[in-house]
Design brief:
- The protein has 893 residues and is of the alpha/beta class.
- α15 packs antiparallel against α28 and α27 runs antiparallel to α28.
Length: 893
Amino acid sequence: MAGPPPDRFWKALLEERVRSRWGNFSWLSLYTVLASGNDALAKLDGGRIIDTRRMRWVAAQRAAGVTPYEPITLADAKSILLLGDPGEMDPSQYVLLRDLAATRAEALILMSDLVYPAGDINAWYEAVYLPYLGLPKSSWKAAETATTPVTLPNWPVFATPGNHDWYDGLSGFMYHACGAEPLPPVRYSSSGLGLVQRLTRAAWQHPARPDRAMLEPLRAEAANRWAGREKPGAIPHQPGPYFTIDIGRVRADTDEERAALRLVTVDTGVDGSLDVEQARWVRKMLEGRVPKIVITGKPLVVGNDVRDMPINRSSAARGEDDLPAGLRGLLAEETADRVIATVAGDIHNAQRVVTTGAVTAAADQPQGRKSVTLSLGSEEYEQARERALPPVQIVAGGGGAYLSETHTTRFCDDDALPLDGNEPVPAVAHHRFPSREVSARHFTMSVGRNAAGVLLGAAALLAASVLLTLWRGGAVVGRYVDKSELSVWHVVLASLAFLFFVGLTAGTISLLWRRWWWAGAGTAFLASISFVATLLMWDVSLHEAKLLAIGTGMAVAIPVLPLSIPGVQAFPLLGRLVPLRLLLATGLGTVGAALAQLSSSDHFMLALIVALVVAAVGLAFFRVAVARFVKWNDEATLHRTNKIGRFLYAVGTLWPTLLVLVPLVALWRSGPNGLFDVGLLMVLLELSITSIALAAFLSAPLIRACPFCPRFVLVAIGLASVASGVAAVLFADDLGPFASPPERLAAGLVIAVAVGFACNAVLLLTSTQPAATDAVTEALKKRDGQPHESIRSRDLFRTMVIAGTPGVSEIAEASRPPFHKSFLMLDVDFDKTDTRAVRFELYGLDDERAGTSMAHPARVLLPEKDQVNARGSFLVDSLTVKVAQPQQKANPA
């Protein structure tokens, strides 16, 4: 008779948490969003606040006699377990514990984001001590007795920080992983700091104080766990946020003893950058004939993208150091010898790509597993150096956090993976877990009904906001502000037009000169010129000019206000929507202002309608323009050289905030006479623009998924939308005061779009079954432009709608079953003289396999008696890298 299902173990262990912070971790919680506010500040500062604090931590460790240049030695180890992004402290983390304990690993390395959401020093109890060290023992024993026995491994646990661990200034990480006390408060001089840097340091959230009564017994028990070892302790005190681990010992022909493999861990902070001091350390650690694996907080290769990790340097150091622009430059140097791979977390799935060398697949591989071999020689190492990418790139971030989608990865012919600046990688040379098909199906079942609700909400918001804006606009067209000839719509549209012209001039200056002082000073100068030109164009008096200034301030303040909400920074999905909305606003203002100037007061409604349509049509162009402007802005930021220039550039970048001062001064001097209509229209216009941007954002995946929807369903939705629009035009009087033809046309158009969204929502609600895997495969091939079979069904349509929504994993938490978790086993094969091979084994936990039979079941880690009606971790990918000894360079003598 089989024992109880092993799921009871992790459920019982969850009950032993001293603080049940949440049942399932979610980024929809207000607490998690607010606690991560330092993320926005660190990125706004360009990572420099992180660089400063990292160097302070390293300096404090050096003062205590600890240096990162002394490697941690695991002379007897051959198997290392790598676990990425584990720290949600909920079922998605604890579900892997039994499988981890069953491995043959001799050490555990926790990579990136150990404690969500902000590296709390007191959350290490539930995030690290209890799950991976079995501390306190009473809690672990209580969980053991609840189910079949679990043997806790006697492994040392190391850790590398992720961006979330930096949100408390790395205090929790350094206290536990490095045995360092919190840094003393320091008052910095503001000399040499730009405006943004000063604001960042003033708003930075300080870390919590350690609960020593709870934590000190755990630290003491961990320190005494392996008493007598050279470096005792369950958490061997690391030298700092970056360090080196030497595994095994070999003795070459020269009788020089060295490590069999070196792990070089790199701390990439919040934004994926390095400071100069750490960059010099990385260069030093990459020297020598020891085979090396670089562990980074963020990956170099994700999906189809190749990234870099820039090296931040001060303006004074920029011309003095000989460091390259980023980490890839360090990997391409001649001194970077025998670098085999990079391994990273941050992305919450598993990916493996071989960019250099020929890959050989094993014959007769079991279903669902990929086993390949890569042989490296001097030629392959040289090719990798030329590409500035080690031969193997691995993402191993599936250790506990919510799942990141893999279906966004695009393939070309024969399932080859196209990478930036490289030849397509053959199918045998790359792998991901979960597969693209499983990923698309998983998120479809997770958010399918939620997506229907979002579509219904978007339809209601679109209809209500636009119709209300049209109605209110028509009601105030005949009214004048302070008995002047300047109508309310003139103020609103001209203000938005002015903002557009200022932004356009700033982008033009950055494009032409690429110099921050020209960008800053030129923007400030042309902003003034543009405003004067606007006044002359509209032929208004000085009193009316004050109204335009007030309207401009409102046009800035109202859109900028939502940007202060931390949720915009915490959710990249919302971050994509904000610039889209801002672009629609500027486009609407420009076109609307021009039409308003050319038309009489009776046709302002027509001007507004045309402006909305033109803004929506020009959306694609605006998005490209904003992306390029952001790139130019970043380049200008990196090329700042002196204090005056930094200040001018800050003024040029923050000009919308400075313009808010204008209406404040005007209101203080003259009072809010006649401003109610202006402010109300600004708010309504903002709601309309937001709803249009949301509709444009949601319509894109719907349109892309149309080829997978049954034709008769598409025809039915089209007829329903057209019929409702025509009915709205004919009976617009019943909807509100829409009597003129333009008003009727606008009402009909809005109602038609809203009904179309509602019909699609009903279609998603009535489709409840997951699409067949083969159908999803063919649909993804069609999306990628490959030869495919044409398949249409409601279930496939829903799947491709979800698969085409950017950032779907940010709104679909994977804290509940079915789980798709993974971890990486690293095995080193060496003899007395040299390293022969390094093997990367990826194990995946996929609850969708539970209760199913496989023709060739993969090896599982659980004992055979526990495999009955239970899920387990399957070996899904195995890469064996044969490490060739580099050829000795000829002696010139």
